[in-house]
Amino acid sequence: MTATTPTSNRDTATPGGTPALVVVAHGSRDPRALSTVRALLDRVRLLRPALPVHLGHIELNEPLLPDTLAALGGGEAVLVPLLLGRGYHVKRDIPDMAAASPARTRVAAPLGPHPLLVDALHARLTEAGWPTHPAPDHAVVLASAGSRDPESRADTSRTASLLAARLGVPVVPAYASAATPTVPEAVRTLRARGHRHVAVASCFTAPGRFATQCAAAAPWLASAPLGTHPSMARLLLHRYDETLMADGAMKRRALATP
């Protein structure tokens, strides 16, 4: 089966009954996004060959998440959002689609904030030309999609703080839509503070309109989207494992309660 084909019921779990991993991507009109997500799932499969790994989209691309879940029948699955913070899709869209399906599902946390995400961001910046020893006039704008949800913005700010600690320079979060500051505004703010070399770190999972728009606003260098970086594959599996461990702990507490 390919990553974009809903699977049959017999492929929903490993022989030992391990729940399948369903990676939930947003979807994009940019064909590069779908090919990138497929390649990322291939990396996940290489890391854990016995684990059934499937793909479902919230919108714009097939397979759509409801179709992927329908193909699982009554099987078990952990849904891991290929999203970098909390927001409407994580809080409402994905849980609602899961609740409407026959599959027995758990929804994991989004990928950010997390040190593995920072690993990927740092690596992409280095690939773009970020120096090993940045000077005091270096700074970074962390560009993300944006959301009206304050928790989504808090997650992006936390990721920016983690990246700043890693790089040793200021990192300002900025957004392509629905929130402020925009990337150009964040660049102007950093330059006004004396930072002559301002890079844009692309906090996007795959190429698309927002990633292209933000990179175009970079006055110096801009990193590529996170894509198939090995840390992204490891992070998807970490969220999957984390969810199963939390579920197991809840069941043990319930059994221990008189």
What features would you describe in this structure?
There is one protein chain. Helices cover 44% and strands 15% of the residues. With 258 residues, it is an alpha/beta fold. The strands form two sheets. Strands 2-1-3-4 form a four-stranded parallel beta sheet, sandwiched between helices. The longest helix is centred in the last third of the chain and has 27 residues, at 230-256. It starts with 19 loop residues before the first strand and ends with a helix. The relative contact order is 0.16.
Taking the sheet with the most strands, its summary is: 4 strands, parallel
Shape: elongated
DSSP E strands, number: 7
Give the helix level as a range of percent. Answer: 40-55%
Low-confidence stretches: 1-11
Q: What order do the helices and strands follow?
A: EHEHEHEHEHEHEHH
Rg to the nearest angstrom? 19 Å
Helix/strand-derived category reads alpha/beta
Distance between the termini: 46 Å
Helical stretch tally? 8
Main sheet strand line-up: 2-1-3-4
Beta-strand residue fraction: 15-25%
Oligomer: single chain
Mean pLDDT, rounded to whole units? 92
